[in-house]
Design goal:
- By secondary structure, the protein is α+β, with helices and mostly antiparallel strands.
- The chain has three domains: about 50 residues, no CATH class; about 120 residues, Heat Shock Protein 90, CATH 3.30.565; about 90 residues, Heat-shock cognate protein, ATPase (Actin, Chain A, domain 4, Alpha-Beta Complex).
- Helix content is about 30%, strand content about 30%.
- It is built from four helices and twelve strands; from the N terminus they run E-E-H-H-E-E-H-E-E-E-E-E-H-E-E-E.
- Strands 3, 4, 5, 6, 7, 8 and 9 form a seven-stranded mixed sheet that branches.
- A hairpin with a 4-residue loop joins strand 8 and strand 9.
- It is flat.
- It starts with a strand and ends in a 12-residue tail after the last strand.
Length: about 270
């Protein structure tokens, strides 16, 4: 009888290692050495650790696109992921980053043409439009990649506006992670988050809207967030719960806030 390690990988990419005692099969009886048996067992242990604790962090660099015309200034910094074993997943992720950036550029370019025509027709001076993107790698460990990208646009008026878009990926599957995916089924994570956001708002109440109908009530079904060490950060759009001067309000939520109800931890 010989103890053998069995590596089980479920559909999400997580693994379990089971130790079972089984009878030595005929393959061993035909001459497999003890050394080869040990090597095989060690290999399974290494593979199990690889899947359980995740791949090494990937590399994220920036692809820069800059252009200036008489209508618009363009400065795009697009995330580029490299170092993944699965090139198909890597290509899918990079393709999404680039598509969103180029779609954004195209939209502002189109608006700049219309803006120039409107200015000429009205006799007012035209101010160049602006299309800018920037990003940060908020989390890149344990097979999770979290990159919030800011899309800034100036299309006339007193000031520009910024939209922050989250990109949260399970690198094993390429799947986009939604906020609800982080928590165990049946757990009322929205209520827990709402209470914590209200608590943090109360500490700095002068920064946020307090008028009835404008104050924070609850997070959305598709509430944007990104992973950070030991937790996650949710955020809100400009003007959503605070004046423009407050920027993009963010709230860091440690995983300890949710007890044992977290199933995906950064």
């Amino acid at each position: 009888m010989l103890p053998v390690l069995l590596l089980l990988i479920d559909k999400r990419g997580f693994s379990q290692v089971l130790i079972k005692t089984v009878q030595i099969d005929k393959a061993f009886e035909r001459g497999y050495s003890v050394k080869k048996s040990i090597f095989f067992i060690v290999l399974l242990i290494v593979l199990a650790a690889f899947y359980k604790y995740g791949m090494k962090p990937v590399t994220v660099t920036a692809k820069n696109i800059q252009q200036s015309t008489n209508l618009i200034d363009i400065d795009l910094k697009i995330p580029v992921v490299s170092g993944m074993i699965n090139q198909k997943i890597q290509g899918k992720i990079n393709g999404q980053f680039e598509k969103d950036a180029l779609d954004f550029r195209k939209k502002i370019e189109k608006l700049s043409v219309q803006g120039k025509q409107d200015a000429d027709n009205s006799g007012f001076p035209f101010r160049k439009f602006d299309s800018t993107t920037a990003f940060e790698v908020a989390y890149n460990k344990n097979s999770l990649l979290s990159i919030p990208v800011e899309y800034y646009q100036f299309t006339g008026g007193a000031h520009g506006s910024t939209e922050k878009k989250p990109y949260n990926y399970d690198l094993k599957t390429g799947r986009v992670i939604a906020l609800g995916d982080i928590f165990k089924e049946g757990y009322n994570y929205k209520e827990a988050i709402n209470q914590e956001v209200k608590r943090q708002i109360k500490e700095k109440n002068d920064l946020y809207f307090t008028q009835p109908g404008m104050e924070f009530q609850t997070i959305k079904e598709n509430q944007p967030f990104y992973f950070v060490d030991g937790g996650l950060t949710i955020y809100f759009a400009q003007y959503e719960i605070a004046p423009y001067a407050a920027g993009i309000p963010e709230f860091k939520l440690p995983f300890t806030l949710f007890g044992n109800n977290v199933k995906i931890k950064g």
